[in-house]
């Protein structure tokens, strides 16, 4: 696998901001989406930039661990997540204010959680442990104390944890470079992709980007990542002909598992691309796919508001 040809998109806070600005110019109808969710993307990137990959303990895997990995067990399930207790509070301070702005429907909930973290009413160790172990007892107790629902508290913790997963995925990436991963779920964290990038002549090689840890991995071009269906009669691809990007941006749907995946032909795009911002610009295609009865393989943040009652995307 040639790792040098990854999607190679712009991941710095400055690059993301530039991509957001150009999206708002290109599609003025999306400017409120850009101004709501853009700051969340930038805040997460700022946090990721501040963290150091060097602090992550890259323990070697035993032979038995590699057997599990080759059977499709994602790496974090084997190694565990990095310890982010020390940085938890700072991460919450960076991420939760823009989150509260973006999710107007649960703004008081996020603000209450943030102020409990701020004044140490919620202990960072407890929060991290509750998230890592999915400890329902602590989650329920803290949610009640903040006057919110457990699913909202869990969702908020997951948002704080995301940049840590990203930095760990980046640090662990060389470990799995030589190992085959023929699966549609992420080799690092096990999540599904929300967006794919096509590279090479005619977009022949497809890379998937994990919706949570942002890891990228090569995957068969004509197979559904979600259900591994490869019957070509069960796929459909459509693009937005009104968009300046035309065929470069599309959505492929799988009629077997009824899901869709946003797809960007990177050979046809001119500007440097940030995959998340590019996906944000494709919301019109997503709406079309949803209207046809398909669900996303993985939710992007701004999709969660499409269904206000279901903030967790579950
Ligand atoms: Zn992942
Ligand atoms: Zn499928």
UniProtKB/TrEMBL annotation:
<dbReference type="Pfam" id="PF24859">
    <property type="entry name" value="FdhE_central"/>
</dbReference>
<dbReference type="GO" id="GO:0051604">
    <property type="term" value="P:protein maturation"/>
</dbReference>
<dbReference type="InterPro" id="IPR006452">
    <property type="entry name" value="Formate_DH_accessory"/>
</dbReference>
<dbReference type="InterPro" id="IPR024064">
    <property type="entry name" value="FdhE-like_sf"/>
</dbReference>
<protein>
    <submittedName>
        <fullName>Uncharacterized protein involved in formate dehydrogenase formation</fullName>
    </submittedName>
</protein>
<dbReference type="GO" id="GO:0005829">
    <property type="term" value="C:cytosol"/>
</dbReference>
<dbReference type="InterPro" id="IPR056797">
    <property type="entry name" value="FdhE_central"/>
</dbReference>
<dbReference type="GO" id="GO:0008199">
    <property type="term" value="F:ferric iron binding"/>
</dbReference>
<feature type="domain" description="FdhE central">
    <location>
        <begin position="185"/>
        <end position="221"/>
    </location>
</feature>
